Automatic annotation (TrEMBL):
Gene3D superfamilies: 3.30.70.60. The lineage of its organism: Bacteria, Bacillati, Actinomycetota, Actinomycetes, Micrococcales. Residues 236-248 have a biased composition (Polar residues). Residues 119-146, 224-248 are annotated as: Disordered. It comes from the Bacteria. It comes from Leifsonia naganoensis. This is Tfp pilus assembly protein PilO. InterPro entries: Transl_elong_EF1B/ribsomal_bS6. Residues 123-146 have a biased composition (Low complexity).
């Protein structure tokens, strides 16, 4: 082998070593750094997208905030914290005037602890016992009566944080005006559950013809502040008749 060929071979080997060294020492680390940067960029972009979605939801919620506050205020007036009887009396006075009836009497009893009632269990189906002898002709089976809607029960409402106060109101007026009063009582700002309603001719002989005295009994409800007694528990022999549920 002559010197020229040997020189060429050595030169090729040196160039190959230079190229390989440049790749491993220069290019490959840069490519790895670029790949790592792209991975971090994708991760940051994903995080930004998540935050952008959360921000959009917060912006939408902030737009609904006035409506939510108004709904909260309505619910707080419907079932206030504490008895808040003075505000309810103001509501009654305004309703007397608006309905064109006269208040004869109104009474507020002590609050009683709210006691939810569990829905009644379905009666088990009875199976007739077989009898000996000839098989009787089959008779049509009556369709089962559909069960009523079960009461709504929430574990958040207990006797310690919810109370019902019996209220009785007697008003005097024409029958249509009395019905308007009862309707306003049920749809007013304060939640009121009517449990009884009765009418008799007005005791006042000087009243116009057709005037009636109507007695409306029911319950108003309130939240009991933590650490306070929610009301006297109903005991056997009393006539508290605390309702199992109420809806407005």
């Amino acid at each position: 082998m002559d010197k020229n060929r040997l020189w060429i071979i050595c030169s090729v080997l040196v160039m190959a070593l230079v190229v390989a060294g440049g790749w491993f020492l220069g290019v490959q680390p840069q490519l790895a750094a670029i790949a790592d940067a792209e991975s971090q960029t994708a991760s940051v972009q994903q995080t930004n997208d998540t935050y952008a979605q959360a921000l959009a939801k917060l912006k939408k919620d902030s737009e609904d905030l006035p409506a939510l506050k108004a709904k909260l205020a309505s619910l707080a007036a419907s079932v206030p914290e504490g008895s808040d009887i003075p505000a309810f009396i103001d509501q009654l006075n305004a309703l007397y005037t608006a309905s064109n009836v006269v208040c004869v009497d109104q009474a507020f009893s002590d609050a009683v602890a709210y006691s939810p009632v569990a829905p009644p269990a379905a009666a088990p189906a009875s199976t007739p016992a077989p009898t000996s002898g000839a098989t009787p002709a089959p008779t049509p089976t009556p369709a089962a009566t559909a069960a009523g809607v079960p009461p709504v029960v929430s574990s958040l409402i207990t006797a310690t944080n919810f109370a019902a106060r019996p209220v009785s109101v007697t008003v005097r007026g024409q029958y249509g005006d009395i019905l308007n009063f009862v309707s306003g009582l049920q749809s007013g700002a304060r939640l009121f559950l009517v449990t009884s309603f009765s009418t008799v001719p007005a005791a006042d002989t000087a009243a116009p013809a057709g005037t009636l005295d109507a007695k409306v009994s029911g319950y108003v409800f309130s939240l009991t502040p933590e650490g306070q007694d929610g009301g006297a528990p109903a005991t056997p022999g009393t006539s508290t008749d605390a309702p199992a549920q109420a809806s407005k």
